[in-house]
Amino acid sequence: MTVSDWCYTVLIASGLLIDYFVSGPAFLRRSQLDQPSARMWLWSVWMTLLWALVVVGIALWLSNERAWLALGMAVPKGWRLWGSVILVVGFALHQVRTAAKIARISGPK
Q1: What's the CA gap between 69 and 67, in Å, rounded?
Q2: Do the Cβ atoms of 18 and 42 come closer than 8 Å?
Q3: Contacts of 46 (CB under 8 A, 6+ apart)
Q4: Do 64 and 4 contact (CB within 8 A), yes or no?
Q5: What is the CA radius of gyration of the chain?
Q6: How many CA atoms lie within 13 A of 13 on its CB side?
Q7: How far apart are alpha carbons 48 and 54 in whole angstroms?
Q8: In this structure, what are the phi and psi dihedrals at residue 107, rounded to the nearest 5 degrees?
Q9: Which stretches within 19-78 are classed as H helix?
Q10: What is Dmax (Cα atoms) for the chain?
Q11: Can you state the angle between helices 35-63 and 24-33, rounded to 10 degrees?
Q12: CA distances from 60 to 48, 49, 54 (A)
């Protein structure tokens, strides 16, 4: 492991500790006041943290000039490709149908 790998590991551990010791108690305080907005806030914090770690990880991977194949990032071939395509298209269609159903629901007036 390189120095940057260790720094990235420390960054991940720090993010988890901040989540546990800062975000968790803040969520509990917020949820006593307004539970739906507290959930949205917590979700936003988690997504921001996770995507920031992904961006930093990709930047480190690229800066060290490592091969994507070492992560298993290769385009599948044969039945794996078509199986993946079918699953992704099926999931997308399911999401579109669900969104259309939700859009048709009329709320209280």
Answers
A1: 5
A2: no
A3: 19, 23
A4: yes
A5: 20
A6: 6
A7: 10
A8: -80, 180
A9: 24-33, 35-63
A10: 61
A11: 150
A12: 18, 16, 10
Give the Cα separation of 64 and 5 in Å (integer): 10
Match 């794996």 to its residue by tokens. 80
For residue 5, give every residue at least 6 positions away whose Cβ sits within 8 Å of its Cβ, in sequence order, or none: 60
Q: Residue 2: pLDDT above 60?
A: yes
User: Per the structure block, which two tokens stand in for 18?
Assistant: 């901040």
pLDDT at site 72: 80
Please, what is the end-to-end C-alpha distance for the chain in angstroms? 60
15 closest CA partner among 37, 48, 55 = 48
Average pLDDT over residues 62-78: 85
Q: Which residue's structure tokens are 């960054």?
A: 11
Exposure b/e, 13-51, CB count within 10 A at least 16 = b = eebeeebeeebeeebeebeeeeeeebeebbeebeeebee
pLDDT in tens, 33-62: 988 888 899 999 999 999 999 999 999 989
